Amino acid sequence: MKKIIASLLVLTALIFASCSGKAVYTAGTYTGEGQGHGGTIKVAVTVDSKAIKNIEVVKNPESDFTINAMKTILDRALKANSGDIDGVTGATETSTGLIAAIQGALAQAATGNAAAVSSTESAAAELKDDSADVVVIGAGGAGLSAAKAAAQAGAKVIVLEKMPFVGGNTNYATGGLNAAETAPQEALGIEDTIETFIDDTMKGGHNLNNPELVRVLAENSSETVNWLISLGADLTDVGRMGGASFNRCHRPAGGAAAGAHLVSVLDKAAESVADVRTDSRVTEITFDANGVTGVKVETADGSYSIAAKAVVLASGGFGADNDVVVQFKPELAGFGTTNAPGATGDAIELVKPLNVAMVDMEQIQTHPTVVPVKNKMITEAVRGNGAILINRDAKRFVSELETRDVVSEATLAQAGKTSFLMFDQGVRESLKAIESYAKAGLLTEAATIEELAAALDLDAATLAETFTTYNGYVASGADADFGRADMPRTLENGPFYAVEVGPAVHHTMGGVKINTEAQVIDNDGNIVAGLFAAGEVTGGVHGSNRLGGNALSDITTFGRIAGTQAAAFTK
Ligand code: MEZ
User: Fold this and answer.
1) Ligand 1 pocket member 551 (CB < 6 A)
2) What distance separates the 2 farthest-apart alpha carbons in the chain?
3) pLDDT at residue 426 above 80?
């Protein structure tokens, strides 16, 4: 109790000091701890007598995708010179733990009643209009790629992100990035071709795709991989995704999650050459008779305008907002989503005054292996590395490497409209991404298949027979039941694992119409001068069904093209 009273006194002193514009620390480095999602977060906070000089996260048990949320919180604490800051939407537990750790350290640093900078003082800056060659709307993978490419081409770039952190849906992407005829494929002896990549993508999208855009995607994919590697990305592990004829999904060594890794690489690359502003929502794209002229921006502190010669729209899709989803595909009412909270389709209204053409808006994809209610996507790479899908009769019911539309539909036809994704220790060891599912407590684990069946209330003899039959198919190289194209390993090394999964909204394939140079097209077929777009905000690349691994490919390749073209336009 004494400890609590003492903490409250320190906190009260800090609050008083902050309100009066005065607070003081005893210079030094102090540690604090807080409980995050994955365990205890520990920070070391260095202060001088007036201000926080540095915050270092010395123990971080959180998953990779929270890196950007943590960075945002550290930036906020440094800017505010205080631990009295807001958390980050979409990373609540990490925010709570990290903020508590910072507050704990600052409570020790506080001496009670002298002078320091208050949070309100440092935040009260005047908002001035600004200018840039290129403004990028959205700091997900597409926006960050565009920003880096535009700056590499010599443009002054400002990136505007409405969320408090960068990364968008790319933070959640896991399985990897599709590319053909790449150096990492060659190193692994994979004989893929650009033409097969094109054929697979067109087939997966039921030929609704714009073939010219698909060709650009495939022909530039290898160069994109080289570009990302040159920026520091690790894309050395190459695995299989549904609908692919070869292993072409590139990700970090050991099968670690690709998205958060690429965000951290691209963020560093973009921040070094562009002005990246979070908590900055674009409310209008301004234009005159000659084309776009800039944007209007809204922040918590007020609004301002940026004059720009070119604008790159990279604001993502609308899969996070079920109200918008059902406007275009009513049968998805009530479905969960894998999407980041910012994917709310802001571009739909933003481009209306510019008479921009929209294509394929009703083409919305569900991902078939998402944990119900928790909305946690289990990457397709788990199936790619060997996992099988089992229904409540303890039987397989589909080729696990079919495209997402086929696997989703087959799952919805099963009792309970979900299935169990099952694998063994061999699959777990082949893919680092699985560790985060184990850490999050999503996996049911059992020493034997019979024990796994008992834990899930399935018939043990049937499940054992299903595994035996499947292992026989792996040995013979032919799946006599469902014709699964690739069966990389038998499932016979315990422990065995299962997780219940079902379809949830994943990717909105429709969006603004672009040409091969990422220029935006209007309803009369004309180019909107100075307006470029890349990533999930666009339509046409994926047709009616996107292949797993083609989103990271799309955002980086078309992001690069949009940035380069936008910079060229400003010359
Ligand atoms: O491209 C994707 O959506 C993807 C690879 C998702 C995943 O299952 O990891």
Assistant:
1) yes
2) 77
3) yes
pTM (two decimals): 0.81
Q: Which sequence positions are flagged as catalytic?
A: 404
Residue 36 φ/ψ region, left for φ over 0, alpha for ψ in the -120 to 50 degree band, beta for the rest: beta
What pLDDT score does 77 carry?
A: 77
Does residue 174 line the site of ligand 1, with CB under 6 A?
Answer: yes
Question: Is 175 close to ligand 1, i.e. is its CB under 6 Å away?
Answer: yes
Which of 64, 171, 174 to mutate to test ligand 1, by most ligand atoms within 8 A of the CB atom?
174
Of the candidates 253, 252, 246, the residue with the CA atom closest to the CA atom of residue 218 = 246
The first and second tokens of residue 42, run together, are 């520990």
- Identify the band that residue 46 occupies on the pLDDT scale cut at 50, 70 and 90: low
CA of 112 to the centre of ligand 1 (A): 51
Residue whose CA lies nearest to ligand 1 atom number 2: 548
At position 368, the amino acid (one-letter code) is: P
Q: What is the number of the ligand 1 atom nearest to the C-alpha of 506?
A: 3
- Structure token pair of residue 428: 């777990």
pLDDT band of 96, cuts 50, 70, 90 = confident
In Å, how far from its chain's centre is CA 29? 34
Cβ of 536 closer than 6 Å to ligand 1, yes or no, is no
Residue of the nearest CA to atom 4 in ligand 1?
Answer: 548
> What is the rounded (10 degree) CA torsion for 9, 12, 13, 16?
-160
Mutate to test the pocket of ligand 1, among 251, 367, 376, 378 (most ligand atoms within 8 A of CB): 367
Q: Which CATH architecture has domain 365-504?
A: Alpha-Beta Complex (3.90)
Residues 6+ apart with CB under 8 A from 315: 137, 138, 143, 162, 282, 346, 347, 350, 537
pLDDT band of residue 543 (cuts 50, 70, 90) is very high
**Atom nearest to 433 CA in ligand 1:** 9
Q: Is 510 in the pocket of ligand 1 (CB under 6 A)?
A: no
| Torsion angle of the four alpha carbons 498, 503, 505, 509, in this order, in degrees rounded to the nearest 10 | 110
Topology, domain 130-363+509-569: FAD/NAD(P)-binding domain (3.50.50)
pLDDT at 88: 72
What's the distance, CA 570 to chain centroid?
Answer: 30
Which is it for the CA torsion 559, 562, 566, 567, positive or negative?
A: positive
pLDDT band, very low/low/confident/very high, at 75 (cuts 50, 70, 90): confident
Residue 486 near ligand 1, beta carbon < 6 Å: no
Spans of all domains in the chain: 2-109, 130-363+509-569, 365-504
Determine if ligand 1 sits within 6 Å of the CB of residue 143: no
